[in-house]
Amino acid sequence: MSADVAARRGIPDASVARLPGYLQALTSLAERGISSVSSEELAAAAGVSSAKLRKDLSHLGSYGVRGVGYEVDRLAYEISTALGLTQDWPVAIVGMGNLGRALAAYSGFATRGFNVIALLDRDDSLVGTPVGDLAVRRMGDLDALVRDDRLAIGVIATPADSAQDVADRLVGAGVRSILNFAPCVLDVPSDVMVRKVDMSTELQILAFHEQRRTGELDLTAQSGVEGVVAL
Amino acid sequence: MSADVAARRGIPDASVARLPGYLQALTSLAERGISSVSSEELAAAAGVSSAKLRKDLSHLGSYGVRGVGYEVDRLAYEISTALGLTQDWPVAIVGMGNLGRALAAYSGFATRGFNVIALLDRDDSLVGTPVGDLAVRRMGDLDALVRDDRLAIGVIATPADSAQDVADRLVGAGVRSILNFAPCVLDVPSDVMVRKVDMSTELQILAFHEQRRTGELDLTAQSGVEGVVAL
User: Fold this and answer.
1) Is A5 helix (H, G, I), strand (E, B) or coil?
2) pLDDT of residue B10
3) Which of B47, B195, B201 sits opposite A206 (nearest CB)?
4) First-last CA distance in chain B
5) What is the rounded CA–CA span in Å between residue B131 and residue B142?
6) Pick from B95, B178, B101, B195: which is nearest to B139 by CA?
7) Which residue of A has its CA nearest to B7?
8) Of A62, B37, B141, B143, which one is least surrounded by beta carbons within 10 A?
9) Phi (first) and psi of residue B197, to 5 degrees
């Protein structure tokens, strides 16, 4: 079974979500000239347990060799293939405010497998403005982008109150994969996949842990004894 | 048991990660003047199953009333308290490139519970440059920010190759919660929590689904018959 075939079978979503992390760790190892890695080392570099790593990779049909581990280049290629990164996916970013401009300039988008082909904005007064190597285009160009340039992924970088409208335009033009940066839940047909990048969500999760940590410190301070013993 | 006490007990990480989504959905309902919501409606708005929603909320000691559901304001308050959002967490953003500037301007950071108190950069030539309402400060100010302004959360918006150094500076100054936008894994002490926002990871997950979808379309096209029947 090739990795490509495996990709179309039922790899659990949670495993798919961890593959990019493994790929990133492998790329970093390759850059340092390391050609083989144990599951323990790779797991540590990706921030997961080695049992979870081995389980995830087994879905791709990739098993390490006892005492040797995984061949870095080969495993990177297998994961890239499984993720569909051996071809270029055309990406459009919608919304040319601060965030959209940052995303247009963000080197992470230049990762192998993605190609930002268009920047769009609903505001016609922005059309033609150069942002990096591209000029801002009008929303009406979406149909042509999907038809002629095989636009596959739309990135929504608008405020929350226009995100649903932009999503409707993308879906109407035939885009079926959306990366949403607007802090809202989008209503899309079931065959459309939306991934959300929500910075305030991540901040709130940090706040939870910060509170728990502070709470624990307070409790220690109140109990007193433990603090003294620890000294 | 108050929500605050619940927060310090063992709420599963996966449940904590979903609380911000519920809070966002509740905030949106409250803005529309809706005062009570069924678990099914709230679950749909947050994009999870109602069974999962009820399970998550039970960790807070919040149970809906049969036939009535949840009181919107009350539940929003309980979740805010559990997440630690009833106090303001001081945040500093490090790295004043495109991404850092976008984050400084991003309205999501102004969400209740967070307060961006400082923008920093390693490049001394940027120090003093105004970005929004703040002026860029030098990294050496971190100690004073933690000591005098109770800086709690550091946001890393630098390129990957300087992220670890910035993380070390933040940790050295006493920051224990880090939101990392750089596409790399950070090595930090075990009492430091790092959340990662990685746009290329999300894009890669979309690529996987786009490939699977395209693969399915190809298979349909090849089999031919199904296509005809569908017409």
Assistant:
1) helix
2) 73
3) B195
4) 59
5) 18
6) B95
7) A212
8) B143
9) -110, 110
Contact by Cβ (8 Å): A107, B159: yes
Token digits of residue A220:
């220690």
DSSP-derived secondary structure letter, B159: -
What gap in Å lies between CA A4 and CA B221, rounded to an integer? 18
Q: Which residue has the tokens 């990957």?
A: B160
Sheet holding A114-121, edge to edge: A137-138, A114-121, A89-94, A153-156, A177-180, A193-196
Cα–Cα separations (whole angstroms), residue B79 to A204, B73, B148, B220 = 11, 10, 29, 46
Residue with tokens 């109140």: A222
pLDDT tens for A125-167 read: 999 999 888 999 999 999 999 999 999 999 999 988 899 999 9
Integer angstrom CA distances of residue B213 from A158, A181, B129, B208:
26, 23, 47, 9
> Tokens 């005062």 appear where?
B35
In this predicted structure, the answer to whether residue B47 has a pLDDT above a threshold of 70 is: yes
Mapping DSSP to helix (H, G, I), strand (E, B) and coil, where does residue B194 land? strand
Which tokens is B116 given? 């961006």
CA of A146: how far to CAs of A143, A150, A152, A154, B97, in Å?
A: 5, 5, 7, 10, 32
**B166-209: pLDDT as tens digits:** 999 999 999 999 999 887 889 999 999 998 887 777 888 888 88
Map out the domains of chain A as residue ranges.
Answer: 3-83, 89-197, 201-230
Query: First-to-last CA distance in chain A?
Result: 59
Strand, coil or helix: what is B91? strand
Same fold? B3-83, B89-197: no
Q: Chain B within 8 Å of A5 (Cβ-Cβ)? A: no
Mean pLDDT of chain B: 83
What's the rounded Cα separation, in Å, for the pair A78 and A56?
A: 12
Which of B113, B213, B216 has the CB atom closest to A207's CB atom? B113
Both structure tokens of B191: 């009492």
Q: Per-residue b/e over A194-230, b at no fewer than 16 CB within 10 Å? A: bbbbbbbbbbbbbbbbbbbbbeeeeeeeeeeeeeeee
* Residue B96 marked ligand-binding: yes
Six-digit token pair at A53?
A: 């790593």
Average pLDDT across chain A, whole number: 83
- The CATH number that domain A89-197 falls under is 3.40.50.720
Is B202 close to A195, i.e. CB distance below 8 A?
yes
Which amino acid, residue A130? P
Fold of A3-83: Arc Repressor Mutant, subunit A (1.10.10)
